Amino acid sequence: MSIFKSGRKAPAEGAVKAFENSGGTLGGGFKVSFGADGFEAGLYEQLRDNVPVIDACISKIVRLAGDFKPVCKSERSRRLLDEFAYSVPVGVSGRSLYTFADMYLDTLLTYGKCIAEYTVDSKTGQLSSLFVCDPELFEVLPDKVTGQPVFRFRGSKKTVDFKNPERILYTALNPTPKSPSGRSILKGIPALADILTTIYSCIGNNFDRAGNLRYAVTYKPANDADIQFAPQRAKAIAEQWTQGMQAAKNGVMKDFIAVGDVGIKVIGAESGLIDTEIPVRQLIEQMISKLSIPPFLLGLNWSSTERMASQQADILTSELEYYRRLLTPVLLKVCKSFLTLAGEDSEVEISWANINLQDEEALARARLYNCQADEILHRLNTSKGDN
What we know:
Blueprint: H1 43-50, H2 52-64, E1 68-72, H3 75-87, E2 89-90, E3 94-95, H4 97-111, E4 113-120, E5 127-132, E6 138-142, E7 149-153, E8 168-172, H5 189-211, E9 215-220, H6 224-228, H7 230-249, E10 261-266, H8 277-291, H9 306-341, E11 348-352, H10 357-386
Antiparallel strand pairs: 1-11, 2-3, 4-5, 4-8, 6-7, 9-10
């Protein structure tokens, strides 16, 4: 039985509890809190929920990583592996090895690490399902002697004793000596998101103030006689103004007629809304540069030349190749384990499809140029032989 569904719980103290520090509150109203080991618990989900461009970037990366296919030399092994790849259960409701790869990469990008496990049916001895763990439950530290990853429940000082440690799948994104368990692709973005959500919050407040028009009706008495009746006249003006505004809601237009010096002004009309286009664009540019997604893929119509768009696509391709290199060992381990448990040849490779049609076109053009060059060389050699 998988540890991720066995009902075993982490220690009550500090398992999934966020230890608050002076991180403060982001402008959008979501809180920055850090775990005891520095893990930014819950922050990354909140960033994706509150800043749509961040969620769109990660979703685009997962989809653009492309399709893959396990390849075997044996025809029987290939059929079994294809059936397994399309039908293996993943988590509670997922199915197929491709769904598992998407979940694995999404978790890896968001948290900077991913822990998963495959289970084996006790009756058939076959690989039966795949699970992706919630990384907030575990912290990963290097063993002081071997340097291998050691897992333990968050907030606990004892390591987790897995019954079958060979079934654990683990990948760290951008590890460093200070952060051996990996760093999220969103590292460094919370400060920008704080400013961006503050701007959006202010825009909403300004539209509440100036967008929903409110009026100031002022009555100025002309002489002492008017001053004596000022309260009664002000009350009458207020009643008639209210009736006129209520009638407008029902589609009935009424004119407001008053005697004396009566002034009507829109509250806040003197100060216009602050132009936020430039600062918002600068913040989004910083985020996109961190996530390595070309703006045109997100529907952002920023001016760029065709050559610049091509260069951005090349940069994205290199990023996607890096993520593929991280996924390939995990997928190979799953496929080889399945074939071994099934008693088949465990020789398998992961064949990735080209990222886009531009790659296909470039490869086809390169083959054409090579063939033309070979033909020219063949003609030159033939003509020299004739002479």
